[in-house]
Amino acid sequence: MTRMMTSQALRCMIIALLCALPAALIAQDNSAGRYRPEGREIGRAASQELGERLFEVRTYEPDTNETAFAGATIFYPLTLSFDAPMGGVVMVPGFRASQQNYEWWGPALASLGYAVMILDTNTPTDGLDARKNALIAGVNFLKAQNSNDASPLSGKIDTSRMAIMGHSMGGGAALAAAAEIGEAVQAVIPLSPYCCEPGGQFSADYSSLNTPTLIIASATDDIAPPAEHARLLYDAIGGPNKVYMEFAEGDHMIVANGGPDLPTIGKFALAFLKVHLDGKANLSDFVSNPADNYRSKFSTYDAP
Description:
By secondary structure, the protein is of the alpha/beta class. Helix content is about 35%, strand content about 20%. It has one domain: Alpha/Beta hydrolase fold, catalytic domain (Rossmann fold). The chain is built from ten helices and nine strands. Strands 1-2-4-3-5-6-7-8-9 form a nine-stranded mixed sheet, with helices on both faces. It is globular.
């Protein structure tokens, strides 16, 4: 009888505590079934290989009320009160794609300590300029979560440590956004980037772009062939902190859900972010000089 009463009392106390919490804090613990387990496993493997702390991941869908993008999901690490504020990453999809095509990225990056916001554009066919504007608005929105008392990220974002990324036309938009907002972002990762507006010609000037850049592409991409897109963009960047990673195999969707080698892509993206957002100089060699077991995957790998 005493044991039963103790158990009942404990349940009542837990319910009372939950009722006392703001709704926003209760809603944040919704990771079960809300993100792809594959992303979590990629984050776990990266944490072991890179020697980085692994976090539990939560998600929420903020009320964006933005004109530059339609909506977003934010993935974030469950930190302790004494942990330092986290860096942020904003991602935009490719042409005709949605955030659901890239769900693995959220838990993979958040597992190693980043708040990750994956956007939906206003329409799936938004062009490069619209995606650029969505990224810029997304960076400002994610930064604002730091001062939003209703957000589970209130007081937890380091607004001086931000990165942007995008796939396909979103990758081209990420470079355009980095060139426009300069020091507002500390890293940019274009994924199988498409250089320009649909059917257009590349005309941007990135000779003064100094934002550290990691371009990930595939030699067999027949939608955005590297010579006309990824490599063209890489060669146009004038700054010294740029890396070009071209896989020998894989199509245009190599970085989306179900890609053939997402663990490798995730590890290099995370190492790159750790170097340029977190100042982890010990991981510089991982990025600039891949081990043989990785280098054999690439048709081309250029780094400082």
